[in-house]
């Protein structure tokens, strides 16, 4: 086993807290992630839906979770599991049995998946609202079985109200529990070793994809299930394209390389960006630019505390960037910081690399966020982003990525 599984109590508590947020006249339906075709008879690499994992810990497609709130804060919960298929197991490995699914998730009632529709239609008779969620970030995403099933429900049950479940889970998932933070720490430890190895091997003429390969090796060799997201290895002017993932160019002497990377360990991935001088030493101009971004990074982190919303954090970050970038000569008006900074200061981090967040909701102790100011000067072929992962605490904050070097002297010493 790659990592120690979470105890069933983690998932039981998560379902209980969600059920307490549901209306008594509602029920919640959560889908496991579908498999999808890549090309021909090949499937896309499969990963469980983050909400479904958070509530069950199960990593298999074709499962439904039904939550039925009752009075006095209690609730019923049922899992619907595909039957074990011995022929399929010959090709794909062991499937979950009802006993194993119950052991992992803590859900005591596990029924066959082919009983789901009959059970659901009986359950909704006493309810007015269905809370559910299918990834709503992209309007052109392929329709899944979940989309088609919900469309059918709308036709067959016109009196049933549909509500998004996501907003109820935002405050719950945002406040990370100790076991979740430990998973992120583990991911960051693996990322640190990968970046240190890259720094030792980096040299002019190396290909961007070779850096990507070195990191992927470290992640998989250390027990990560996959990379956390497509690795960005951007040399020179490529770093001014924020989501550059081609990684196909040679790394040139006297230029910088921006590496934005993460390894997913037990469904949680750190998200780190570091910038290295390809020849081992920053030029005077590169150091000037880098130091300004580092000053933004460190100044913003020092001001972090629980109780601030993302909207308030963005305002603080804008003032810090404007002041520092104006002083450094990159802009003439502080309000123009986005002309060279391009993006906001960071995002929530958890089961999703860009985890659930609401702009006006105050972040509480336990929230894990990224701090990633950037500076992009395409006419000079300079793109810099310095990204750390920080957990908010009752007394302030902890930089979870503190062991990953970011000071100029430390980076140059690492590459010597």
UniProtKB/TrEMBL annotation:
BP-aspect Gene Ontology terms: proteolysis
SUPFAM superfamilies assigned to the protein according to its UniProt record, in alphabetical order: Creatinase/aminopeptidase (SSF55920), Creatinase/prolidase N-terminal domain (SSF53092)
Domain Aminopeptidase P N-terminal: 6-138
Pfam families listed in its UniProt record: AMP_N, Peptidase_M24
Domain of life: Bacteria
E.C. no: 3.4.11.9
Keyword terms, alphabetized: Hydrolase, Manganese, Metal-binding, Metalloprotease, Protease
This protein's GO CC annotations: cytosol
Swiss-Prot/TrEMBL catalytic activity: Release of any N-terminal amino acid, including proline, that is linked to proline, even from a dipeptide or tripeptide
UniProt family annotation: Belongs to the peptidase M24B family.
Entry protein name: Xaa-Pro aminopeptidase
Organism: Candidatus Lambdaproteobacteria bacterium RIFOXYD2_FULL_56_26
């Amino acid at each position: 086993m790659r990592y120690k599984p979470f105890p069933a109590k983690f998932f039981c508590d998560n379902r209980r807290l969600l059920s307490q947020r549901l209306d008594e006249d509602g029920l919640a339906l959560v889908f496991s992630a579908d498999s999808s075709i890549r090309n021909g008879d090949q499937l896309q690499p499969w990963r469980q839906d983050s909400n479904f994992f958070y509530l069950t810990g199960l990593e298999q497609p074709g499962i439904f979770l039904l939550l039925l709130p009752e009075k006095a804060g209690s609730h019923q919960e049922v899992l619907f599991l595909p039957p074990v298929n011995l022929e399929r197991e010959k090709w794909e490995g062991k499937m979950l049995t009802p006993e194993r699914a119950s052991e992992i998730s803590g859900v005591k009632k596990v029924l066959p998946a082919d009983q789901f529709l009959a059970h659901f239609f009986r359950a909704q008779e006493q309810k007015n609202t269905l809370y559910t969620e299918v990834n709503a970030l992209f309007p052109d995403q392929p329709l899944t079985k979940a989309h088609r099933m919900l469309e059918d429900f709308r036709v067959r049950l016109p009196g049933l109200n549909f509500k998004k479940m996501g907003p109820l889970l935002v405050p719950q998932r945002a406040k990370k529990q100790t076991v979740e933070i430990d998973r992120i720490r583990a991911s960051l430890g693996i990322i640190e070793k990968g970046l240190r190895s890259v720094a030792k091997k980096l040299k002019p003429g190396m290909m961007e994809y070779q850096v990507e390969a070195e990191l992927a090796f470290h992640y998989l060799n250390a027990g990560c299930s996959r990379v956390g997201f497509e690795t960005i290895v951007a040399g020179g002017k490529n770093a001014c394209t924020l989501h550059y993932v081609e990684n196909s160019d040679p790394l040139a002497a006297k230029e910088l390389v921006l590496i934005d990377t993460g390894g997913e360990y037990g469904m949680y991935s750190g998200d780190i960006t570091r910038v290295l001088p390809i020849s081992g030493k920053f030029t005077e101009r590169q150091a000037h630019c880098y130091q300004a971004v580092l000053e933004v990074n460190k100044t913003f982190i020092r001001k972090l505390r629980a109780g601030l919303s993302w909207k308030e954090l963005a305002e603080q970050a804008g003032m810090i960037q404007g002041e520092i970038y104006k002083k450094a000569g990159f802009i003439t008006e502080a309000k123009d910081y986005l002309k060279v900074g391009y993006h906001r200061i960071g995002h929530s981090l958890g089961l999703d690399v860009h985890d659930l967040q609401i702009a006006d909701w105050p972040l509480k102790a336990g929230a894990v966020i990224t701090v990633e100011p950037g500076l992009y000067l395409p006419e000079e072929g300079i793109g810099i982003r310095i990204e750390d992962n920080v957990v908010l605490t009752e007394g302030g904050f902890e930089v979870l990525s503190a062991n990953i070097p970011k000071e100029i002297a430390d980076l140059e010493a690492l590459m010597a």
